[in-house]
Amino acid sequence: MRRKMDGVNDSDTGKESRGERLISFVRTRVILPLFLLCILALGLFIGGFIVFSDHVSMLETPDLVEPADGIVVLTGGFSRIEGALELLKNKRGERLFISGVHASTNRNELQRVTGGDATLFECCVDIDRSALDTIGNAAESVKWANANHYKRVIVVTNNYHIPRTMVELRRASQDIEFIPYPIVNSNLRDGDWITRGLIVRVLFVEYVKYLGAVIRSELPDSLSDATASLLHRIKG
Questions:
Q1: What are the backbone dihedrals phi and psi of residue 105, each rounded to the nearest 5 degrees, phi first?
Q2: Residues 128, 144: Cα–Cα separation, whole Å
Q3: Kind and range of the H or E element at 74?
Q4: Residues near 23 by Cβ (< 8 Å), separated by ≥ 6?
Q5: Angle between helices 197-218 and 221-235 (to 10 degrees)
Q6: What DSSP string describes 111-162?
Q7: Alpha carbon distance 84, 93 (integer Å)
Q8: What Cα–Cα distance (Å) separates residue 21 from each residue in 33, 42, 141, 170, 205?
Q9: Which residues 6+ apart lie within 8 Å of 31 measured at CB?
Q10: Element (H, E) at 161
């Protein structure tokens, strides 16, 4: 009688009990594991960024004892073309391929801006104006190497850009040996990159792009090409 007067019955109590069990189940079996998974993913992401940054900061310009067949340089960073022209001048490769030159930049203007030797530019430098990003750089570089029957190619780009460039190049061709030649503009070997905001930002953006390149390289060709096409549209 007391229960009925209070408006409480066994059915209501059962519903409340089931509701509490459901909430407890969601908390322990869904929310908590998802939260822990997010924490783990964040830790791996941050740890990977630190490893990536330490790796690129320790890269050095190598001594090339044995000349390669050709030299490829990717535009977009300070001193890249100048470094590649120096390699060509020292006969580290037969020809130089400059990938990603702006469509409005002609050969003479590029030669003047970079301070390259006019005769060397005329005889041994090929220019690509179609590549819009690193994916395009890799594709055009492989086409150029294959057209010249080159099997050993030096790749010139900035140190932070080397990992992503090598992923794209090796995905584009397994038959060519690519030799990384990092251009180092800032000495980061003492580990103080973490205190320099601009450098941290550059490294972080490149790290995210590198992860994207790694993931894309593991996709089937059809999905990988579709992803590349989407990226081109977004950037365009």
A1: -90, 120
A2: 9
A3: strand 70-74
A4: none
A5: 140
A6: HHHHT--HHHHHHHEEEE----SHHHHHHHHHHHHHHTT-SEEEEEEEGGGH
A7: 10
A8: 17, 30, 61, 53, 45
A9: none
A10: none
- Token pair of 124 as six digits: 């041994």
Tens digit of each residue's pLDDT (9 = 90 or more) over 64-117: 888 999 999 999 877 899 999 999 999 999 999 999 999 999 999 999 988 888
**Torsion angle of C-alpha atoms 229, 231, 235, 236, degrees rounded to 10:** 10
The structure's pTM equals 0.80
Residue 47: pLDDT band with limits 50, 70, 90: very high
CA dist 186 and 25 (Å) reads 53
With a pLDDT cut of 90, the percent of the chain lying above it is 58
- The crossing angle, in degrees rounded to 10, of helices 134-147 and 162-172 is 50
Query: Structure tokens of 190?
Result: 């003492």
**Quick check: 105 and 112 in contact, CB under 8 A?**
no
Burial class (CB in 10 A: 0-12, 13-18, 19+), 120: middle
Question: Residue 236 — pLDDT band, cuts 50, 70, 90?
Answer: very low
State the average pLDDT over residues 179-196. Answer: 76
In the 8-state DSSP scheme, what is residue 7?
Answer: T
Query: What's the rounded Cα separation, in Å, for the pair 48 and 172?
Result: 25
pLDDT of 205 over the 80 cut:
yes
- Count Cβ atoms below 10 Å from residue 59 Cβ, excluding itself: 19
The answer for residues whose C-beta is within 8 angstroms of residue 138's C-beta and 6 or more apart is 165, 168, 169, 171, 172
- Which residues have CB under 8 Å from 152's CB, separation 6+? 68, 69, 70, 176, 177, 179
